[in-house]
Structure prediction request, 606 residues.
Amino acid sequence: MQPVLVVGSVALDSIETPFGSVSRVVGGAATYFAIAAAHFTNVRVVAVVGDDFDDERMKIFQNRRIDLAGLQRVSGETFRWKGRYKDNLDDRETIYTHLNVFEAFRPAIPPTYCASPFVFLGNIHPTLQLEVLGQVESPQFSVADTMNYWIEGTPDELRLVLSRVDGLVINDAEARQLSGESNLVKAARIIQAMGPKLLIIKRGEHGVLMTRPNGFFAVPGLPLESVCDPTGAGDTFGGGFLGYLAGCSDVNDEALARAVIAGSTMASFSVEAFGLERLLSVTRDEIMQRFSEFKRLTHFEEL
Amino acid sequence: MQPVLVVGSVALDSIETPFGSVSRVVGGAATYFAIAAAHFTNVRVVAVVGDDFDDERMKIFQNRRIDLAGLQRVSGETFRWKGRYKDNLDDRETIYTHLNVFEAFRPAIPPTYCASPFVFLGNIHPTLQLEVLGQVESPQFSVADTMNYWIEGTPDELRLVLSRVDGLVINDAEARQLSGESNLVKAARIIQAMGPKLLIIKRGEHGVLMTRPNGFFAVPGLPLESVCDPTGAGDTFGGGFLGYLAGCSDVNDEALARAVIAGSTMASFSVEAFGLERLLSVTRDEIMQRFSEFKRLTHFEEL
Prediction:
């Protein structure tokens, strides 16, 4: 079992969905990733919070396999985001994004983190992602997240990141945008030529499609009766995926497939309640059971 | 191996996609269904063509396990449809629909068809679907296709059909529309209460979701490098699905799962060329190989 380093946002989220609302709950990409990954391995967090991130809020990281040596605490307010989801939970509207202390964030990797074998670069400015890669000693396996904002705004910096990571997590629209190709098979090949051999395409309720050395792997979304809040589902997937992989002795095709199921399992819990609520309460047994539900959902025998 | 009866359209299609165009090629729901199903079992066709449906066009049915005793030939032109697909092949625009001889079509089941154990009611007026059910002696397994047009326009007639069939094939938007429920798990339960215990939800490139007595089964779409023409993919799926099932000794959970893969396999061939071209040339070996590709795409071991 090897540790995973994650860099990304820790935020205070306010969320409105048709099923209710919450205000200033702990969120952010690095948080969702870390809570999910810590169910599988040790996690090292590189992020920043303001002095409004009080002890009560810090509690969510306690009694978990989460190392906070890389969590900077600076004067000012924590990153704040407010979003509102429409009826079908597919579309969301951002009410505000206040970067606050995140605006001047420069990732500083503590010496104890330098030899992290697994690295997840959350969806932040590609230049910051590069700064992290520059401080970690040749990680065994690195995965970056990104989005349309960076694909359009900082294409050169993003290309540098892509040339240096093993994996990339994006959604299908972004895969098409980044490659300039609408067919996903061709799009994947174009993106692989930019660097990352592993491409993980998130498709929301339709599941995940992943390229592997020996061909594609795909899993549909688990049909869920109660979907309450999709916030953080993608980062939760990333945490389950890389956390599971870091616990494997070898990153091979079979481990990668199971890692996708582990990520999908964690994401399926995440969306069942607001914010981190369900992720914080889920047990090892529940995770195992839901993993098996994915098996039942998709299993069939050869002809 | 038991025979399958299909009722639906036989048409002359004109199709434009970003990859080319074809004019007045043989198409229609019953045709796609029959050609796909005949790879697995004997098929009985109930449909109508005009006197423009010449011997050359009839050839596509020859040397296949397709019984045309129920294919009416009447004076006038065959059903004609013209459609145009946009760049991503998701959206299509109907240029024209000329019902022609299909306008006065009343399905007449030949005596040799009356004891058909498997029945597929193509996407036609629910009243015609009911007329077919009235002429077949208590089929073992019946599946109906429908669409938003009938959900909105003839809800009472559709309800009668639903109360009498075992299965329903629709897409996810239609499932939400028919049930008035956006969550697919709840939507499925509501539709099952209307009659069909088996609900097969088509999701285009995202694959298929099916309810079964013992829980959902789902398969993602196979990533295809060359998608040329999606016309008929849904009916081809239906033909592969019900054709495979009719070849099984028992309609149980495992057979249903494999039937979804058989349907998805046939649909994946159908979209690779214009119209019926690929479906007409595909071999038993190619079908077996692609079935295995679905297995490789989705297989993972338990934790």
